[in-house]
Write a structure and sequence with these properties.
There is one protein chain. By secondary structure, the protein is mainly α. It has a domain of about 60 residues: 434 Repressor (Amino-terminal Domain) (Orthogonal Bundle). Helices cover about 35% and strands about 0% of the residues. Helix 2 crosses helix 3 and helix 2 crosses helix 4. It is globular. It starts with 8 loop residues before the first helix and ends in a 49-residue tail after the last helix. One of its GO terms (molecular function) is DNA binding. This is HTH cro/C1-type domain-containing protein.
Length: about 110
């Protein structure tokens, strides 16, 4: 039995938008209050994480429930595992401390 190809978010967005009468990316962008560039990136799956606010704007413009796209959204990981924790360390601006209750000596208000 042949394997069923998974439809991406971008492919489904384009299909539903066109079925709803949006002939161009610009038409959908205008109706959703987004830029044409954003819609283009979404169509091409170049934006892997779609925020809830963008999804809501698109669904409102198209006239579909946001749950329609749930099977096409991913958490950004292609292997189904949980996203990895960031390896970035928090940065502290010079003259500031991580704990505001423990000011750096010599900094702060003069008496």
């Amino acid at each position: 039995m042949p394997e069923k190809l998974q439809v991406t978010f971008g492919q489904e967005l384009r299909r539903v938008a066109e079925a709803s009468g949006f002939a161009t990316q610009q038409e959908l962008a205008d109706a959703a209050g987004l830029s044409q560039t954003m819609v283009g990136k979404l169509y091409l799956d170049q934006r892997p994480n779609v925020s809830a606010s963008i999804l809501f704007k698109l669904c409102s413009a198209i006239g579909v429930d946001c749950n329609h796209f749930a099977p096409h959204l991913t958490d950004g990981e292609s292997d189904g595992t949980e996203p990895k924790a960031s390896k970035r360390t928090p940065t502290v601006k010079p003259g500031r401390t991580k704990n505001a209750a423990d000011p750096t000596p010599g900094k702060g208000k003069k008496k």
